[in-house]
Specification:
The protein is of the alpha/beta class. The chain is built from 13 helices and 14 strands. The model has no long low-confidence stretch (mean pLDDT 98).
Length: 403
């Protein structure tokens, strides 16, 4: 089995339009949650979100290409450009056929779907743009990445709600580790802050009216976010041979299904994925220094995840640092795990733990060290990143600092 390392990373989210902006926001513990401005909020219960502020696709794409790209695909392409540039990988001389593109997305082209539904049902439009379907399809981002970079190897999209990105990254990791490909571009993307989507989330009654404060006694729910994060991963031997900068090593991946409720999480299912990840990485609980939690800020999720961590980590749970960066960049659904991978890699490389922002008073049932409000200077050797989705779909990654 090959060792698999991350040699490039890119991100765009409410925290900023590139990886440097993410690093600075995470270090400062700055929450990017605020009033929604990209859609009208009259008629919505929830009027806050973690949107990518100041984003203009015209700054990144020519008009002809922009017309084919939903906001979701735009984010993925921008993050991929940064990851590929940072990796300094070239897909010429046959590498394109030995490279996979595996992207997670929970919904896909929701902006396009919402806009066209409005045109059809409200404006009674007789015809739509001929490329409406290619623009909204959930696999569009992965396809555009292959076309922009000349990649002819396997390419597909993974959709498992909030676990989509972690599933995509884990599958890509296993593909590179097994040798079926040499390189993979992988991560997640999402852009679901649309009027129709927000109405749907309002109906679920899991949205916070003010901000996201995971693991707190007075938490009131999740906050929707958007954005993308993408990594270039490759075999360690290949990365060393070409003198690439290695950002971190992916060492394990675990997944499970709750087979329970369509929305309520299961501590047993979450714990099974975490145990599977540790086994895949050949790690003991005591080897883990930090967990980037799923930590949505909902009543059920935070208690359930805390129970799962106790079940897997035993006495070591109390010595772990655990934080939820969703308190800063919101819950980006299919992109959540990718943004959290980016945060975890930053933590490993920079020697600090991103905090759980907006923290007030801990819920008595949430009794771990959640690194409240301020980043903590601490060296980390091994970290885990949890994603637990609606439908009981669980995916967990283990990342090691590379030295």
């Amino acid at each position: 089995m090959n060792r698999v390392v991350i040699t490039g990373l890119g991100a765009v989210s409410a925290l900023g339009h590139d990886l440097r902006a993410h690093l600075e926001a995470l270090r400062a513990g700055r929450s990017a949650i605020g009033p929604i401005t990209i859609i009208p909020t009259e008629g919505l219960i929830t009027k806050i979100g973690a949107e990518v502020r100041g984003f203009d696709g015209n700054a990144y794409f020519e008009n002809g290409k922009l017309a084919l790209l939903d906001r979701c695909a735009q984010f993925a392409l921008i993050a991929t450009r940064e990851a590929v540039a940072g990796s300094k990988v070239s897909f010429r001389q046959g590498l394109g056929s030995r490279t996979a593109v595996v992207i997670g997305a929970g919904v896909g082209g929701q902006t396009t779907l919402d806009e066209n539904y409005y045109r059809v049902y409200a404006e009674r439009a007789k015809r739509l743009h001929p490329f409406t379907i290619p623009k909204l399809m959930i696999s569009a981002a992965a396809s555009h990445i292959t076309m922009e970079h000349g990649i002819t190897g396997p390419s597909f999209t993974v959709a498992s709600a909030c676990a989509s990105a972690n599933h995509a990254i884990g599958i890509a990791f296993h593909m590179v580790r097994s040798g079926s490909v040499d390189v993979a571009i992988t991560g997640g993307t999402e852009a679901t802050i649309t009027f129709g989507t927000m109405k749907g989330w309002d109906a679920l009654r899991v949205m916070a009216p003010d901000t996201c404060r995971p693991f707190c006694r007075d938490r009131k729910g999740m906050v929707l976010g958007e954005g993308a994060a993408v990594a270039v991963i490759e075999t360690l031997d290949r990365a060393k041979a070409r003198g690439a900068q290695i950002l971190a090593e992916i060492v394990g991946f675990g997944m499970s299904s709750d087979a329970g409720d369509i929305v309520l999480p299961s501590a047993d299912g979450a714990a099974a994925a975490m145990r599977g990840c540790l086994a895949d990485a050949r790690l003991a609980p005591e080897d883990v220094d930090y967990i980037n939690a799923h930590g949505t800020g909902t009543a059920a999720n935070d208690v359930t995840e805390t129970k799962a961590i106790h079940a897997v980590m035993g006495g070591h749970a109390k010595r772990l640092a655990v934080s939820s960066t969703k308190s800063m960049h919101g819950h980006a659904l299919g992109a959540a795990g990718a943004l959290e991978l980016a945060a975890t890699v930053i933590a490993l490389r920079e020697g600090f733990i991103p905090p759980t922002a907006n923290f007030t008073e801990a819920d008595p049932q949430c009794d771990l060290d959640y690194v409240p409000n301020e980043a903590r200077l601490q060296g980390i050797e091994v970290a885990m990143s949890n994603s637990f989705a609606f439908g009981g779909q669980n995916a967990v990654l283990a990342i090691r600092r590379f030295t």
